[in-house]
Amino acid sequence: MNETIYESVQRAQRLLQERGMDTHAAELAMRSVTGMSQAHYLASFRERISPETHSQFWAIVTELLTGKPIQYILGEESFYGYSFEVNEHVLIPRPETEELVHYALQRANQLFGDQVIRVADIGTGSGAIAIAIKKERSTANVTATDFSEAALEVAKRNAQCNEADVHFIHGDMEEPLTQQKWDIILSNPPYIADHEKSNMSPTVYDFEPQTALFAEEEGLYFYRRLAENLSPLMNRPALIGFEIGYQQGVIVQEYLRKSFPEATVEIVQDIHNKDRMIFCEIR
């Protein structure tokens, strides 16, 4: 079928919409198989696509219709302006986590100015947080941990591709960090409660690594654990920053206040006005 770009994408979008799936993925698929920038894509709607491109495009759409995320099909996702490899071993980086990086960098400038700081990212996954911090604050000494060796291999490749000098350590949460003191510790840990599984999109539940999604204690286990164990690891002053579920802010805030009574603990909303981050400034 000798369709135009527009016709093929429209047909794919209708199929995705019928299944309640993300229709924007059809555009991303077409841009991937044609190698077009967004501007070129928009200017080329009426161009007819070759049989080979048509075949490649519909192969991706067929995978999309199974619920597989476009990022896993293409093997990449953008985060904080940098390109990251993603696969079934790591979560797909999301815009909310970009906000965690943005506010962490902003607060780092206020707390530490230009001094060289030591930063840790706990549960790094694809390495997105650690690598973005290193790229944006090149003098920082950045370490990242993960319990999954497969995830760490992805993170290491991402650091190499982005020319980011990040030190990676295999281990359980904060345990690999106990031999040093830290100026900043960040984490986007698993925080979904088991009972929330039924409300999740199959695109997430069926394809993204469940060990990176779910946590015990109604999704709060890792926040409680970190709040209880991080105090001996922190310099003074210091900053702790977590991404949180939108209903978890008050409880996580209390965990941190209990462990750091002298600190300022602030819940920060994301661009959608939902509680999404919590920062603990220790002075």
What brief labels describe this structure?
single chain; alpha/beta; Rossmann fold; 2 domains; 7-stranded mixed sheet; 11 helices
Topology:
Blueprint: H1 5-18, H2 24-34, H3 38-43, H4 51-64, H5 70-74, E1 76-79, E2 82-85, H6 95-112, E3 118-122, H7 128-136, E4 141-146, H8 149-161, E5 166-170, E6 182-187, H9 202-205, H10 221-229, E7 234-243, H11 249-259, E8 264-269, E9 275-282
Parallel strand pairs: 3-4, 3-6, 4-5, 6-7
Antiparallel strand pairs: 1-2, 7-9, 8-9
Helix pairs in contact: 1-2, 2-4, 6-7, 10-11
Q: Calculate Rg over CA atoms.
A: 21 Å
The CATH superfamily title of the largest domain = Vaccinia Virus protein VP39
CATH topology type of the largest domain: Rossmann fold
Net shape = elongated
- The overall pLDDT average reads 94
Number of DSSP-assigned strands: 9
Number of helical stretches of at least 4 residues: 11
**Largest sheet properties:** 7 strands, mixed
| Arrangement of strands in the largest sheet | 5-4-3-6-7-9-8
Helix content percent band = 40-55%
Which CATH architecture of the largest domain?
A: 3-Layer(aba) Sandwich
List the secondary-structure elements in sequence, H or E.
HHHHHEEHEHEHEEHHEHEE
**What fraction of residues sit in β-strands?**
15-25%
Number of domains: 2
